[in-house]
TrEMBL record:
Keyword Transmembrane: yes
InterPro entries attached to this UniProt entry: GTP-bd, GTPase_Era-like, P-loop_NTPase
Residue ranges crossing the lipid bilayer per the database entry: 455-477, 497-518
Biased composition (Low complexity): 345-370
The G domain, residue ranges: 58-173
UniProt-recorded name of the protein: GTPase
Gene3D superfamilies xref list: P-loop containing nucleotide triphosphate hydrolases
Region (Disordered): 328-373
UniProt signal peptide: none
Claim: Transmembrane is one of the keywords in the record: yes
Keyword vocabulary terms for this entry: Membrane, Transmembrane, Transmembrane helix
Length: 568
């Protein structure tokens, strides 16, 4: 028969490590009070784990006149605490120890100087019982001492009396906030000897109701009289069971971790990010003048094609026109300027004259020779500055990225994601301009067929010159009345004429065909450049806007996972 094994939850060590991880991830994102409180819980739990686990520290806590000290003496079997009518009677916590050997470091950590061996041998070996000051004392130091020890002890025994068991100060300040600690809590209704049996039952039922409303369902409630000894045997038996288990300390620490994790926030699934990169890329491309650059790439390609493959007689005229890409400072040795940051020669607001990203001044940091154009791309481009509308669209796109990513996050984390989206926005202008310059510079590479056509054009031009010289020589000989040499012909047309006219016609025809090919090539190159620019600009947007947002979402995901493990 196969045995069923009970599934165990995460260990205390793993939960403690998860809480520490959550506090580190929440640093700067959540209120400092919650983060520091969780860190203090983790540190406190770490210290308690290293101290004696063979001893259980139980504290008798209650209001003035509830009879804590009387109950403390009755359990200890000796008059260790002063009991009287003058309030407050207990001014400092003291400890009664059953087999207290080895409990010294634990009591030192609790800062309990008054320690007494218990006279009662009631099987409570390992119990360290504390008598605390009144939680409603008129002395502030007494209340602070109670608050300090309530956070440290392993087991809480709340002592109430028939007159003040419903006191709002007790329920609102201690019991309700400690609902997660019901596994290490007992409630004792003391002084029941002052009530008839029917009134005791009514008080117990009413106290049970109040505890259930406080979230403390299941917490044991005992009726006790320290004066007559009624109910003490049941209380000793219950304390003995808790001490014998040796689990109160770990149960207390687990409850502390759960409470601290709850104060950091409820674990939630990481929201699915919405794709806003297209809108961001489109806005950056528009602001960076990508459409203008793409148009200049097509025109520049046709311009350089005419210069390289046009008819040698007229191509020099084309050289008088400016290269469209050179006018935008794109290509080899481009001077400074800038599209998103301001007019040519100006830097965007907040930029120093030094080159961005730690590069040498005036250098884009990427050699165009590596792209095959044989020179270095220097400085910023001279694409016209982005208009106010274009800059507003970029800012809107960045804001939309942050809002979309933060839409399902809790308030502090949502603010952190929005801030992450804007954290590197000041770097966008320079980064986009660099990728526009370097990516567009690849469009200046000369196709190989230009060289072949250029050689062919010069051969045809040479043939034309040969025909012209030949005809010139014949004209001179005829002018000098010299005998004409034999003249070869092509049919009836002399070769000099064929060379001259054919060279002119062939050169013009080649130039026209090359221009047609350059027009088609310019369109193809413009499309390729547009795709490359969108990809490059999109990568900049991803690096400077989307990546910080993803990092913050990843941080939140790890925080949520750690919080879930801590609360398990």
């Amino acid at each position: 028969m196969k045995l069923l094994r009970r599934k165990e939850g995460p260990s205390l060590d793993s939960r403690l490590a998860a809480l520490l991880e959550a506090t580190e991830l929440a640093e700067g994102r959540l209120p400092e009070e919650a983060v520091s409180g969780a860190r203090a819980v983790a540190e406190r739990a770490g210290v308690r784990r290293t101290l004696s686990i063979d001893h259980t520290v139980a504290a008798l806590a209650g209001a003035t006149g509830s009879g804590k000290s009387s109950l403390y003496n009755a359990l200890a079997g000796a008059d260790l605490a002063a009991v009287g009518v003058v309030r407050p009677t207990t001014s400092a916590a003291q400890a009664a120890l059953w087999d207290g050997e080895g409990a010294g470091p634990l009591l030192d950590w609790l800062d309990i100087p008054q320690r007494h061996p218990a006279a009662s041998a009631s099987g409570l070996s390992g119990l360290v019982l504390l008598d605390l000051p009144d939680h409603d004392s008129i002395q502030v130091s007494h209340r602070l001492e109670v608050d300090r020890l309530v956070e440290l002890v392993d087991l809480l025994v709340w002592v109430v009396d028939p007159q003040k068991y419903a006191d709002a100060a007790l329920h609102d300040r201690y019991l309700r906030p400690l609902a997660a600690h019901r596994g290490v809590m007992l409630v004792v209704l003391n002084q029941v000897d002052r009530l008839p049996d029917s009134a005791v039952d009514r008080c117990l039922r009413d106290l049970r109701r109040l505890l259930d409303e406080d979230g403390l369902a299941g917490v044991p409630v005992l009726a006790v009289s320290a004066r007559t000894g009624a109910g003490l045997a049941e209380l000793r038996a219950l304390l003995n069971d808790r001490v014998a288990e040796r689990k109160s300390w770990s149960t207390r620490l687990a409850a502390d971790i759960t409470t601290a994790a709850a104060r950091l926030g409820a674990p939630e699934e990481t929201p699915a990010g919405q794709a806003m990169d297209r809108a961001l890329t489109a806005a950056l491309c528009e602001a960076a003048g990508v459409p203008l650059v793409v148009e200049a790439v097509a025109k520049g390609h046709r311009h350089r094609a005419v210069v390289a493959t046009g008819w040698p007689v007229t191509r020099w005229i084309r050289k008088l026109r400016p290269d469209p890409l050179r006018r935008l400072r794109i290509g080899p040795m481009a001077p400074t300027g800038g599209p998103m940051g301001g007019p040519a020669g100006e830097l965007p607001p907040g930029r120093s004259p030094a080159a961005p990203s730690g590069q040498a001044a005036g250098s884009s940091g990427q050699s165009a020779s590596g792209q095959g154009i044989g020179a270095e791309v220097v400085g910023r481009t001279s694409v016209p500055a982005a208009s106010a509308v274009q800059r507003a669209r970029v800012e809107t796109a960045i804001r939309d990225v942050g809002e979309a990513a933060a839409s399902d996050l809790p308030g502090p984390w949502a603010a952190a994601v929005r801030q992450a989206a804007r954290s590197r926005s000041q770097e966008l202008a320079d980064a986009v301009d660099r990728v526009v310059a370097t990516t567009s510079a690849r469009a200046t590479r000369r196709p190989r067929w230009w060289r072949a056509v250029n050689v062919l054009q010069w051969l045809v031009f040479a043939a034309m010159l040969a025909g012209a010289l030949w005809l010139g020589v014949l004209f001179g000989m005829d002018y000098l009345r010299l005998p004409q040499p034999p003249l070869p012909t092509v049919g009836v047309v002399p070769w000099p004429t064929v060379l001259l006219v054919g060279g002119v016609l062939a050169g013009v025809l080649i130039a026209l065909l090359s221009r047609l090919a350059a027009w088609a090539g310019g369109r193809r190159r413009a499309r390729r450049t547009a795709r490359a620019l969108r990809t490059a600009v999109g990568q900049v947007g991803d690096d400077l806007v989307l990546a910080p947002v993803r990092a913050e979402l990843d941080r939140y995901a790890r925080f949520t996972e750690a919080l879930t493990r801590a609360r398990a």
